[in-house]
Amino acid sequence: MILWLKGVVFSVTTVDLKRKPADLQNLAPGTHPPFITFNSEVKTDVNKIEEFLEEVLCPPKYLKLSPKHPESNTAGMDIFAKFSAYIKNSRPEANEALEEGSPENPAETR
């Protein structure tokens, strides 16, 4: 998605994970997609891949996709984590504790 948003021409290789080619097994043993190779170096962590692409595919040739203020990304991840926990909760008695972190909760603004 990052490559597409930046307008980079790239190729995608689909692989049957049950019948991985030998070169793929040797490339990133014990890992599952996604991963990326660049100059014979393999990146397997999604966050590291994102950071790497933003660093290498930088302006002026490519758009900058990272937030202007890094703390906005942290805030977004925090909100997503709390919302995700809330919607996955199967115990109604835990809802109140999960709602305490909600920005709409007046107790938090005091």
Describe the structure.
The chain has 110 residues and is mainly alpha-helical. The protein has 2 domains: 2-56, no CATH class; 70-109, no CATH class. It is 42% helix and 5% strand. The protein is built from 5 helices and 2 strands; from the N terminus they run H-H-E-E-H-H-H. The protein has helices at 2-6, 22-27, 46-56, 70-88, 95-99; strands at residues 36-38, 41-43. It has a two-stranded antiparallel ribbon. The longest helix is centred in the C-terminal third of the chain and has 19 residues, at 70-88. The radius of gyration is 20 Å and the shape is flat. It starts with a helix and ends in an 11-residue tail after the last helix.
Biggest sheet strand order reads 1-2
Gyration radius from CA atoms, angstroms: 20 Å
What is the arithmetic mean of pLDDT?
A: 79
Major β-sheet profile: 2 strands, antiparallel
Give the end-to-end Cα distance, rounded to a whole number of Å: 40 Å
Number of domain modules: 2
How many runs of DSSP E, i.e. beta strands? 2
What would the principal axes of the Cα set say about the shape?
flat
Q: Give the strand content.
A: 5-15%
Secondary-structure-derived class: mainly alpha
Q: Considering DSSP H and I runs of 4 or more, what fraction of the residues is helical?
A: 40-55%
H-E order: HHEEHHH
**Count, helices:** 5
Low-confidence stretches: 105-110
List keywords for this structure.
single chain; 110 residues; mainly alpha; 5 helices; 2 strands; disordered C terminus
Show the helix and strand layout.
Blueprint (H helix, E strand, L loop, with lengths): L1 H5 L15 H6 L8 E3 L2 E3 L2 H11 L13 H19 L6 H5 L11
Antiparallel strand pairs: 1-2
